Amino acid sequence: MSGRFRARELGIKTGLLQPGPLNGITDVMGVRVGHVTLIEGKTVRTGVTAVLPHDGDLFHEKVFAAVHTLNGFGKATGFEQVREVGTLEAPVLLCSTLDVGRVADGVVGWVLEHDPEMGKRAGTVSPLVAECFDGYLNDARARTVGPEHVWAAIERAQTGPVAEGNVGAGTGMSGFEFKGGVGTSSRQIGERYGSYTVGALVVLNCGRRQQLLVKGVPVGQALADWPGEPAPEGGSIIMVLATDAPLSARQLARVARRAVLGLGRTGAIATHRSGDFVIAFSTAQRVPHREEQLTRTLTVLAEDGRAINWLFQAAVEATEEAIINALCVAETMQGRDDHVRQGLPLDRLVELLYTHGYPSVRLPQV
After folding, report:
1. How, if at all, do strands 87-88 and 92-96 pair?
2. Are the C-beta atoms of residues 240 and 68 closer than 8 Å to each other?
3. In order along the chain (366 residues), what is the average pLDDT of each group of 10 residues?
4. 305 and 254 Cβ atoms separated by less than 8 Å
5. Which CATH code, of 3.30.365.10, 2.30.30.60, 3.40.50.740, 3.60.70.12, is assigned to 16-289+297-353?
6. What are the DSSP calls for 234-287, one per residue?
7. Which sequence spans correspond to the domains of the chain?
8. Helices 249-265 and 308-329 meet at what angle, rounded to 10?
9. What does the pLDDT look like over 294-316, one tens digit per residue?
């Protein structure tokens, strides 16, 4: 077997809805993603990922947002302000646990560089940073990610296909005791219900081998003999959802909670020491930092079930497939102290799904 493939390239199709053209979070118009990947010597296996809702001034043109905590054993920043006011005002940054402070400082520095009124008349920015712990493969104590890497990830953020697997914040991550990392997917809702898109991007760093399910097949149990050390207790996942549907912060919180169902479809259980968070935002409307009028008129989706149920469905499906993509694309990696995380064996995966009644699943000819 040679090469790594996304789930759909293997014929693994999950859910009822169709993905967007890129099958990624950037199918939501305007969303951009940037990675900085740091691999040095035998010990540095880390990076940082930036997700931007639009290419404008995010502080002065905020977007509605929500965060959801499944299990709160994490070191995130900026969540409380999002919960309080319901808007996102800075790029979403994803990184390793012990780099959170350095990354948050980098975001503040980047905003100060681009806004001379920040800290004066413009107020102050709330950086939103979420993390998973990559210390099995990476020397986390070195805290390699610095402000220059944060700036580079933001500046490199672009639309189009999103790199997955061992990139950015996913570089040193593990998933279900295989190699984890970054994964993305999207789902589209038909014209009858608004022609909306939901995109998901995950940093996968959670799960035990025996828990892993793909299309309901107990893949992890069948691969119990595959090389790999047990994962430390815990492990985390960050799930980022973007949509172009006109949703309020409260509605986004409802959609965010459904991402957890997608995670559950893969077998993860959110352990005691896991930091499992969902960050959701809508690109449909921008909220000015300074309102000129005392009141504001907004367009929000009617909550009578016609469209929002499909948004729930899209969030579940996009999250599930993003996780599977992270596993399928991530390659075997050796890191600190000669630790190794094996990539999910795609030939075995295909064989297992085929024998469980999915004849269209197969390895592409390369």
Report:
1. unpaired
2. no
3. 86 97 98 98 98 97 98 97 98 98 98 96 96 98 98 98 98 98 98 96 97 98 93 88 98 98 98 96 96 91 93 98 98 97 98 97 90
4. no
5. 3.60.70.12
6. -EEEEEEEEE-S---HHHHHHHHHHHHHHHHHTT----TT-EEEEEEEEEEEEE
7. 16-289+297-353
8. 50
9. 998 999 999 998 999 999 999 99
Angle of helix 100-114 relative to helix 147-156, nearest 10 degrees, comes to 60
Query: pLDDT, tens digit, for every residue of 330-344?
Result: 999 999 999 999 999
Q: Catalytic site residues? A: 236, 274, 276
Nearest CA to 95 out of 182, 188, 8, 27 is that of 182
Please name the amino acid found at residue 153. Answer: A
Q: What was the pLDDT predicted at 336?
A: 97
> In the 8-state DSSP scheme, what is residue 173?
-
